[in-house]
Design goal:
Layout: H1 6-26, H2 38-46, H3 49-56, H4 86-102, H5 105-132, H6 136-142
Helix pairs in contact: 1-5, 2-4, 3-4, 4-5
Length: 151
């Protein structure tokens, strides 16, 4: 059963392509050419939040596209207890750490563009989740999109 109109499906693919395109642009400088920086290293370690997220949102339920899987279920425990998109946070933390260690001011612009793309993707995902699970409204009211007590 397809819950979203074609424009949502097209937007979803565009967000995924933009997300992975921006990440690929960051990966131009391999780790052995980095200038290891403390802040970047801490951000890269913080990106391990993604592993914790996958423990609670298993690959059979997880989707890189914002559409919920046909046999998926709503996850509200673990890192999802406080934030609705912990995997996006992990991606942003990893991208920021990579950008810091790889150097180059233009990488900051890539991370900011990635933030905008993931925010738009999260907004679409939330509309689709609400259409699939009406209880998502209460969950959304008690959690933060990305950063607890801020956003």
């Amino acid at each position: 059963m397809n819950l979203d109109p074609p424009s949502s499906a097209t937007s979803a693919w565009l967000y995924v392509l933009a997300q992975f395109g921006l990440l690929a642009a960051l990966l131009v400088v391999p780790p052995w050419q980095w200038e290891w920086r403390f802040a970047g290293s801490v951000l890269l370690l913080a990106a391990l939040l993604g592993a914790w997220t996958l423990l609670h949102n298993r690959p059979g339920n997880f989707n890189v596209q914002p559409q919920p899987r046909a046999r998926g279920h709503l996850v509200t425990d673990g890192p999802y207890r406080r934030v609705r998109h912990p995997m996006y946070i992990a991606v942003l933390l990893g991208a920021a750490g990579w950008a810091d260690c790889a150097g180059g001011a233009w990488r900051v612009l890539i991370v900011l563009a990635l933030l905008l793309v993931l925010n738009a993707k999260a907004a679409l995902e939330e509309r689709l989740l609400l259409a699939r699970w009406p209880e998502y409204a209460a969950y959304r009211a008690r959690t933060w999109r990305f950063v607890p007590w801020l956003w």
